[in-house]
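Thread: "does anyone have the structure for this chain?"

Original post by V.I.:
We have the sequence but no experimental structure in hand. Need at least a predicted one for the grant figures.
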Amino acid sequence: MTPWLHIVGIGEDGLSGLTPAARAVVDAAEVIVGGDRHHSLTPDNTAERIAWPSPFNALIDQLVALRSRRVVILVTGDPLWFSVGARIGRAIPPAEIVYYPQVSAFQLAAARMGWSMADLETLTVHGRPVAQMIAFIQPDARLLILTTGAETPGQIAEFLLARGYGASRMTVLAAMGGPDEQRFDGTAEGWNHIVPAFNTLAVECIAAPGAALMPRVPGLADDLFRSDGTMTKRELRAVTLAKLMPMRGALLWDIGCGSGSVAIEWMRATRYARAIGIEPRADRRAMAADNAQALGAPGLQLIEGEAPDALADLPAPDAVFIGGGLSPAAFAAAWGALRPLGRLVINAVTLDSERQLLDLYKAQGGELVRISVDRASPLGGLTGMKPQMPVTQWSLIKR
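Reply from O.Q.:
Generated one for you, tokens below.
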């Protein structure tokens, strides 16, 4: 089929910044879709103008209805880099679409800062929870962030300051590439600029000696989590996540999630990882929600209930962790829902649960291990090793 939908990236320089091919399709368009800003950058075209619909998901049906016409969608920068191009491409066959990329805000910002794109993290909080950037606050990290409004840099400054990164350098860049380009420089601890709503933020993270260290490698310090004491502890959590194998975009069911430590570390470990925590107690769900917000996993979904009943209508997982509420029915429901190559990990501390794991191991195979951790503690005037309660762990991959 001949392409009828053209998705054109445009910058602050408007039509003059387009390649000849992109300019030609804009000039020939019968319908142009975009935001107010995009329409203002192409004032001379006589095509029918359509604004972004609300809700945004209505756009796909609107586009399909225009299939017989020459349609151009105007977007900012690269249509396939944190833009609507990917969303449209999932709903309309790629053979019907032509993309015309423009220099992205990330590339322009990197050029303004003199930063190598290979040595930084590119993030967007545009229309998404700002707290998700917390997972990327690390010593010497360089971040480029598409913001969600004029207030976003101030919110991010507060996140940095609260975690001991108040000296971090921040630069807001607005209207890059246009005649009204602006730049605002400062630090997180002294940030007081009033900036345009449409902006890109550059952050160079600078850690104070007492700054929180929160790497994305699993095994965060226990005291970073609010807990009533039943949390999966640091060493065991690291082993558990290694068996669960977080992967980009993958979904975890955390059954009996408690304070949410395993689900949160799963989401922090790789981009776009998702998690659903199933927990019957309201106080523990509240702790999990607070921990998720504080540690950069605000997308953690929390559900009241117990397995197997609470699992019935959930999307199929790529991994399942059972840290509490183990029963034959819970295992059967989780194993049945798990996708091919899915990973299942169950931790047990009681003899009753251990017996269930032994039966499962004999019937299903997998790997059964006992993990014991000793921690140093005062012993009189000396120091001794105090053993923690040993944990039996069974893990299995669905083939």
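V.I.: this helps a lot. The mean pLDDT is 95.
O.Q.: and Residues 351-364 form the longest helix (14 residues).
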